[in-house]
Specification:
Serum Albumin, Chain A, Domain 1; 6 helices; 0% strand; 134 residues; single chain; mainly alpha
Length: 134
Protein backbone atom coordinates (compact mmCIF):
# COMPACT_ATOMS: atom_id res chain seq x y z
CA UNK A 1 0.00 0.00 0.00
CA UNK A 2 1.38 3.40 -0.96
CA UNK A 3 1.79 6.12 1.60
CA UNK A 4 -0.30 9.23 0.99
CA UNK A 5 1.39 12.55 0.54
CA UNK A 6 0.84 15.12 3.30
CA UNK A 7 -1.36 17.14 0.89
CA UNK A 8 -3.57 14.11 0.13
CA UNK A 9 -3.85 13.33 3.84
CA UNK A 10 -4.90 16.91 4.57
CA UNK A 11 -7.44 16.94 1.74
CA UNK A 12 -8.92 13.61 2.76
CA UNK A 13 -9.21 14.58 6.40
CA UNK A 14 -10.99 17.87 5.68
CA UNK A 15 -14.66 17.75 4.91
CA UNK A 16 -15.66 19.96 2.05
CA UNK A 17 -19.09 21.48 2.22
CA UNK A 18 -21.00 22.67 -0.80
CA UNK A 19 -24.37 24.37 -0.56
CA UNK A 20 -26.54 25.95 -3.23
CA UNK A 21 -29.00 27.51 -0.81
CA UNK A 22 -29.52 30.35 -0.27
CA UNK A 23 -28.71 31.81 -3.68
CA UNK A 24 -26.54 34.90 -3.75
CA UNK A 25 -28.11 38.30 -4.35
CA UNK A 26 -26.42 38.29 -7.76
CA UNK A 27 -28.22 35.04 -8.63
CA UNK A 28 -31.54 36.38 -7.38
CA UNK A 29 -31.05 39.55 -9.47
CA UNK A 30 -30.31 37.39 -12.53
CA UNK A 31 -33.53 35.44 -11.92
CA UNK A 32 -35.50 38.70 -11.71
CA UNK A 33 -33.87 40.02 -14.89
CA UNK A 34 -34.72 36.80 -16.75
CA UNK A 35 -38.31 36.92 -15.48
CA UNK A 36 -38.68 40.52 -16.70
CA UNK A 37 -37.38 39.48 -20.10
CA UNK A 38 -39.69 36.46 -20.26
CA UNK A 39 -42.77 38.43 -19.22
CA UNK A 40 -42.20 41.48 -21.43
CA UNK A 41 -40.84 40.11 -24.72
CA UNK A 42 -42.30 37.78 -27.35
CA UNK A 43 -41.97 34.13 -26.36
CA UNK A 44 -43.90 30.88 -26.42
CA UNK A 45 -45.61 32.07 -23.24
CA UNK A 46 -46.55 35.45 -24.71
CA UNK A 47 -48.09 33.86 -27.81
CA UNK A 48 -50.72 32.33 -25.57
CA UNK A 49 -51.05 34.86 -22.76
CA UNK A 50 -49.62 38.12 -24.13
CA UNK A 51 -46.77 40.26 -22.83
CA UNK A 52 -46.61 42.69 -19.94
CA UNK A 53 -45.25 46.20 -20.18
CA UNK A 54 -41.65 46.44 -18.92
CA UNK A 55 -42.86 48.27 -15.80
CA UNK A 56 -45.54 45.67 -15.02
CA UNK A 57 -43.10 42.85 -15.81
CA UNK A 58 -40.53 44.34 -13.43
CA UNK A 59 -43.03 44.59 -10.56
CA UNK A 60 -44.37 41.09 -11.25
CA UNK A 61 -40.87 39.59 -11.51
CA UNK A 62 -39.80 41.05 -8.17
CA UNK A 63 -43.00 39.80 -6.51
CA UNK A 64 -42.64 36.32 -8.07
CA UNK A 65 -39.00 35.95 -7.03
CA UNK A 66 -39.65 37.25 -3.53
CA UNK A 67 -42.62 34.90 -2.96
CA UNK A 68 -40.71 31.92 -4.37
CA UNK A 69 -37.69 32.73 -2.20
CA UNK A 70 -39.86 33.07 0.93
CA UNK A 71 -41.65 29.79 0.23
CA UNK A 72 -38.39 27.93 -0.34
CA UNK A 73 -36.67 29.54 2.65
CA UNK A 74 -39.55 28.52 4.92
CA UNK A 75 -39.00 24.86 4.03
CA UNK A 76 -35.19 24.96 4.21
CA UNK A 77 -33.41 22.77 6.69
CA UNK A 78 -29.85 22.87 7.89
CA UNK A 79 -29.32 19.19 7.09
CA UNK A 80 -29.27 19.29 3.31
CA UNK A 81 -27.16 21.02 0.69
CA UNK A 82 -30.05 22.94 -0.77
CA UNK A 83 -30.74 20.88 -3.89
CA UNK A 84 -34.36 20.18 -2.91
CA UNK A 85 -34.84 23.78 -1.83
CA UNK A 86 -33.50 25.11 -5.15
CA UNK A 87 -35.90 22.75 -6.95
CA UNK A 88 -38.79 24.08 -4.86
CA UNK A 89 -37.64 27.67 -5.55
CA UNK A 90 -37.55 26.98 -9.28
CA UNK A 91 -40.96 25.27 -9.31
CA UNK A 92 -42.48 28.14 -7.32
CA UNK A 93 -41.09 30.67 -9.79
CA UNK A 94 -42.57 28.73 -12.70
CA UNK A 95 -45.93 28.32 -10.99
CA UNK A 96 -46.15 31.97 -9.94
CA UNK A 97 -45.08 33.17 -13.39
CA UNK A 98 -47.78 31.07 -15.05
CA UNK A 99 -50.38 32.24 -12.52
CA UNK A 100 -49.38 35.85 -13.23
CA UNK A 101 -49.68 35.62 -17.01
CA UNK A 102 -52.95 33.69 -16.76
CA UNK A 103 -54.41 36.30 -14.42
CA UNK A 104 -53.25 39.13 -16.68
CA UNK A 105 -54.71 37.42 -19.74
CA UNK A 106 -58.01 36.87 -17.91
CA UNK A 107 -58.15 40.55 -16.92
CA UNK A 108 -57.38 41.59 -20.49
CA UNK A 109 -60.09 39.29 -21.83
CA UNK A 110 -62.64 40.61 -19.34
CA UNK A 111 -61.78 44.19 -20.30
CA UNK A 112 -62.18 43.54 -24.03
CA UNK A 113 -65.42 41.53 -23.87
CA UNK A 114 -68.60 43.22 -25.00
CA UNK A 115 -72.17 41.91 -24.75
CA UNK A 116 -72.28 41.17 -28.50
CA UNK A 117 -69.12 39.03 -28.39
CA UNK A 118 -70.18 35.54 -29.38
CA UNK A 119 -66.93 33.77 -28.56
CA UNK A 120 -65.71 33.60 -24.94
CA UNK A 121 -62.20 35.00 -24.56
CA UNK A 122 -62.30 36.76 -27.94
CA UNK A 123 -62.85 40.48 -28.17
CA UNK A 124 -65.61 41.87 -30.34
CA UNK A 125 -63.04 43.23 -32.80
CA UNK A 126 -61.41 39.82 -33.17
CA UNK A 127 -64.81 38.17 -33.44
CA UNK A 128 -65.88 40.53 -36.25
CA UNK A 129 -62.63 40.05 -38.14
CA UNK A 130 -63.06 36.27 -37.99
CA UNK A 131 -66.63 36.23 -39.29
CA UNK A 132 -67.02 35.57 -43.00
CA UNK A 133 -67.79 38.58 -45.14
CA UNK A 134 -70.72 38.41 -47.53
Amino acid sequence: MEAQSPLNQTLCSQSISFSVWPPTQRTRDAVIHRLIETLSTPSVLSKRYGTLSPEDASAAARRIEDEAFSTAAASASLDDYGIEIIQLYSKEISRLMLDTVKATAALDNDATKTPDSAMPGVSATESKSQSPSL
